[in-house]
Amino acid sequence: MSKVLLVFVFCRVAVSALIAEDIQIQQHNSITYATVNVWSGSDYHGIASFGEWEDAAVREQRYQILLGELRSLAPDVVFLQEANPVRRYSHRIAKDLDMDEIHQVCIAGLKIFGLGIPCGFQEGNAILAKKELKLQKVDDWKLSGSPGVYSDNFTFHTDETISALLGQIVYREKPLNLVCVHLSATPEYFPELEDSLLALAERDSLSAKEQKTLREKWNAGIQRREKETSLLLKKLAKLDPAIPVIMGGDLNSGPESLVLDKIRSDGSFLDSGAWMDSYPTWDPQNNANVAHSLLDHDARGKPNTAWENFGNAAASRPNRLDYVFLSDEFRPEDILDHRAILTEPVHGLFASDHYGVSGEVATDFPLANAPKLYDTLPRGKKIGWSALPIAMYDTDTGFGYGAKGYVRNVFQHNESFDLILFNSTRGERWYKLEFSLPDRELRQRKKYPLGLDLKLEYDKWIKASFFGVGGGSEFTDREYYTKEPFEILLTLTKPFNRYLNAQIGLRFKHVSVYNYSDIGQLCDLVWIQDSEKAWLSNLANISWDTRDSFINPSRGMILQYELESNYLQDFFQNDFDPNKSLEFAWGNGFHFTRNTVTAQYYTVLWYPKTVLALRLQGAYQFFGDNSAFHAMLPLGGGTTLRGFPQDRFLADTIVLGNAEIRFPLWKGLGGILGFDAGGAADNPSALKLSKIASNPVLGLRYYMNDFVVRADVGFGSETTGFYFNFGHAF
């Protein structure tokens, strides 16, 4: 009776806590912004390094001028272009302004052909935001350029790449998207440039063929920028229409260009500085930093090509190139301020070769319909359900078939019920029922008082494999048996913020083994340790989770520590009469303490969106009284060591490492190149590098909105494993 009462109190506290709400967020009525092309100062000529128009001391002076202006303005968000090197630059200015930052490398890597990049050059875009706005990187969009690798740590490409950077902030409890863009810099068309072309042809004695080639390059560049704009608008159209957008950057296009027409009309964006047309942000007549564009040679004194001289002629015309656009949730009357900045020299020096722009926009109207983020989950209003068939194949289980059912909001508290019924041709029988309050997937990046999860799981392996205990087990010692585990798991989860969660719980587990050979290793263990074991354990877990998705993460990390111990069962066992042979029900006299540390990391490597996924896990347990192979740590199978059989290793200490490069192939289809490695031993000191098992992995992925279909082949040293299932391996 005492045990029932304890569980009842445990659940009652959980449900009561779910009713509470404790979120207080400061309210605002406007947001301020600034955008600046900070000018890399390079001429983009050279093999090992690019020529520079200034020395380090002048570059530092320019930085301090920019920093002083931004400190004076104190904008909520800042868009930067041509930051070089972008990672170091954005980190530094964010620290100096006490802001958060995200960035994207655009021009970087090893220079091979075309623009390319020399060593030490990593130009790109960056977004800054005040810390209370909780800025995070959402995506980066390649708009044009050659295939290549673009990351903070390694870059390689053969041509200039144009990209846009997407971030998101939380403002007045609502999300707001931020886009930073820098379009290609080919001269746009205007009538006066035709005269410049003819004058250039006469001055440099260009042949008719050379003039034609120059015109073709000019037209190709204009078309490229228009295609970049079209692709940018397509990307923007796929964003959640309920979330407003502020987009800032250098478009290398004037107010009367086709680029601006597309953004204003096709994209329905409001140009927040439309009245600034007579105030150029590119000003060769007054900004001394633009003087390099009017010279007939580069920074190293090498004469320009005809194309470069033509570009310089175009650059001699003042123009407005820098913009901030607002999505159609905003109205013209919401624009409270918009003006040019950095228009005056400081001690004779300008901060950049562009002037920047800053402004302020009211947010009361456009944010009214945007969804809330990171707040206590609202009460569920609609009942949702789904039922899906299950079909899979696993080398260990054979062909699998069954069904998955899902119901949410029956009681209108965002609770969910999940049911899985599964059988396989090799004899696995898997049945699972889960109850979550609120639903686990809804919890991501949300604030809620407390989470309650209850899981009942029954699994029966008619043909399970046993190889022995410890890292030294041999594949040739494989024997088959029937394993029948049953588990009840009850947990409470407390979020402290968007990323930090703590969890406590109770686990009851019962494992039976039978149908084993009477002359194998397993028989000896069963004779010593019994064919059935049951135990009650308590667990505690703390995790830091910044993944951008639970289902298909591309950025972020997980750091997690879990402690599990079954000493709690002694408390329950005291209620029983030791003479009544019920000791079996609470552990059979064995105790263990288990420690598990997990780290997972995800980052985008290059375009098209290619993700590096890493996992490192270590677990160690020790038995206080006796031991039980039923509770040992397993290693092997489709979610750990692909290519090695399920439960290939059983030990008290295991280490596991997985690495995958996940890359797109066509539409929703993608591929992976992976590598798994792991080891097992009686204790941490017994782990030997020479005993680490490893295998390469090839796989395919099909990505859908709510789940991932996985097909992997693992090439182990002992077997080859094939796995067709749902969800990533990790």
Protein described:
- It is built from nine helices and 32 strands.
- The chain has 730 residues and is α+β, with helices and mostly antiparallel strands.
- Helix 4 runs antiparallel to helix 7 and helix 5 runs parallel beside helix 6.
- The N terminus is likely disordered.
How many structural domains? Answer: 2
**Which stretches are poorly predicted, pLDDT < 50 over at least 5 residues?**
1-28, 111-117, 574-585
Rg to the nearest angstrom? 31 Å
User: Count of DSSP helices?
Assistant: 9
Largest sheet: number of strands, sense, barrel closure: 16 strands, antiparallel, barrel
CATH fold annotation of the largest domain: Porin
**CATH architect. name of the largest domain:** Beta Barrel
Fraction of residues in β-strands: 35-45%
Name of the CATH homologous superfamily of the largest domain: membrane protein fhac: a member of the omp85/tpsb transporter family
Helix fraction by DSSP (H/I, runs of at least 4): 10-25%
Mean pLDDT: 86
State the name of the first-level CATH class of the largest domain.
Answer: Mainly Beta
Strand order, main sheet: write it out: 15-16-17-18-19-20-21-22-23-24-25-28-29-30-31-32
Q: Which descriptor suits the 3D outline?
A: elongated
Structural class: alpha+beta
Number of strands: 32
- Spatial gap, N to C terminus: 41 Å
